[in-house]
Amino acid sequence: MADDKLRLTQRLEKMAREQGFAAFGVAPAVLAPVTAQRLQDWLADGQHGDMIWMESRADERASPQSLWPDVRSVIMLGMSYTPARDPFALEDVSDHGRISVYAQGKDYHDVVKRALKHTARWLVENAGCQVKVFVDTAPVMEKPLAEAAGLGWQGKHTNLVSRDHGSWLFLGAIYTTLELESSVGGKDRCGSCSACQDICPTNAFPEPYRLDAGACISYLTIESKGPIPRQYRNAIGNHIYGCDDCLAVCPWNKFAETAAAHKAFLPRAELAAPALADLLAMDDTGFRKIFSGSPIKRSGRNRMVRNSLIAAGNSGDRSLVSSVTALLDDEDSVVRGSAVWALSQLDSVCFDREKGSRLPRETDADVRLEWQSV
Questions:
Q1: pTM more than 0.85
Q2: Any idea which residues carry the catalytic annotation?
Q3: More confident residue, 60 or 303
């Protein structure tokens, strides 16, 4: 029986790799109690920002069997998106925005889920079991499960680190009613390294292995819907969607091979180095055209323009003043407020002139505050 399970697992891994997965392992359907406690402590400290859904289904996150009582094993899979280009290449190119590596190609939700379904279907057909597949959209703690399955370990930046793929893995899970032999779990190999903590522009790590989401550039530019807090705006620099800084400095990345990356995640030219002037000029139609098929499409035009305005304000590029000024009339109040701040950073004379005519007729309290804060 044990030999049969081993052979099934080996065949399953072969199938998974044919679907483009670079990492494979099996975890028991029970997480260590310390994982649930860490989640509860993180939520209690309010370090999840406005991600209220993290609270509402915390019990299901903490235990796979709370989400699905019939699950007996969790098959964890990783798909590589190791970048061929230095993620810091645009750091000093102030008139262009920086989009996180993972979002420069096709939407990973679609790519990974499609491969998961093919792999899970093979398992059902060959083992007669039940399965459920998950990619970052359900209350599943992928990173602790991936560590338990031996894909790597949860690093000090709270993301998974792999000996073979560095910090560049998309994770997917297959819950199954089969009782499979579990893989040897991952071992923390961060040691005394603090590179990911030291590089963070907004100091979003109060301590190793703990992230304050409300201070994280990825959260601020992707999840947060309102005005970006003033204390983080300058530190954001030209990040307009996500941030790779803590991932990109991980020393284990030196073992990651770009050849292992799934071809679907190759960067699209228009997303690898977008000009701020083009982004600031986008309407909804233009946004949908540029970001079709990208995970960025979920954020919507207003959030992307907001982020681009923060980058414009940090650019020192006065050629962007006319583009910024045009957005002072935007229908969206968060965009208008961000344009006020960007203009204040780029041209004080123009700012004072516009303030005199616009502040008296501005009805939104947050936008008025932006005018009055300078």
A1: yes
A2: 136
A3: 303
